[in-house]
Design goal:
By secondary structure, the chain is mostly helical. It folds into two domains: 88 residues, no CATH class; 118 residues. Helices cover 70% and strands 3% of the residues. A two-stranded antiparallel ribbon has the order 1-2. A hairpin with a 5-residue loop joins strand 1 and strand 2. It is elongated.
Length: 210
């Protein structure tokens, strides 16, 4: 939703995150209350209109269940904060989620009989979940992590990449392409060896029948 809102009006995103200062007045007893509409000046009307626009965008992007959760909110920021708590939890819950995902990241390894594409999809899911919680890793950190998670059979390829490439600037997508290409080569080699074994077996079988 963040990208959707920013694409429509980037200033609205700032308003949603930081909150609009809706018009208020201070009573004689010191209480601060919403300013009556009949006392609005042009600046007040502009602030209220921008807030209404931001609320409208949020409402258009959510389902009926979420609408019921935020329909009573006065400001767009209040709506957004409530949605954040709904989907990310409180700060304590958020930190717990981050801790769990970081553990998954640190323990990540390629599974037995798993191909590169499937492994990378699992890795990306963890990275995306962390990014949604404002926890990010640099490209070079992710490149090194992928190389470390590969099984022993991949060590010659890992060494070749480390010697030939600057891991500080190697794009993650380029690493993926290199690994997938190597995987195809290994599969072809295995297929050729299997065909050769079958061929020799057939020759041996025919020889035994003579």
């Amino acid at each position: 939703m963040t990208i959707f809102i920013e694409s429509l009006d980037y200033n609205l995103w700032d308003l949603i995150v930081d909150g609009p200062n809706l018009p208020t007045v201070t009573l004689e007893n010191g209480d601060v209350v919403p300013k009556p509409r009949n006392l609005y000046d042009d600046n007040d009307r502009k602030r209220v209109q921008v807030n209404a626009k931001a609320k409208h965008i949020i409402i258009c992007a959510i389902n009926s269940n979420d609408f019921n959760r935020i329909s009573s909110c006065i400001s767009a920021k209040e709506m957004w904060d409530r949605l954040e708590v709904t989907y990310e939890g409180t700060n304590q819950v958020k930190e717990a989620k981050i801790s769990m995902l970081v553990h998954e990241y640190e323990m990540f390894t390629m599974n037995e009989n798993e191909d590169i594409n499937s492994m990378f999809s699992r890795f990306t899911n963890i990275i995306n979940a962390l990014q949604a919680l404002d926890k990010t890793y640099s490209n070079s950190e992710m490149v090194r992590k992928i190389l470390r998670c590969l099984p022993r059979s991949w060590m010659p390829k890992v060494t070749a990449i480390e010697e030939a490439k600057n891991l500080n600037v190697l794009p993650l997508e380029d690493l993926l392409g290199s690994l997938m290409t190597h995987e195809l080569s290994m599969q072809k080699k295995d297929d050729d060896e299997e065909k050769e074994k079958k061929k020799k077996k057939m020759v041996a079988l025919k020889s035994s029948q003579i």
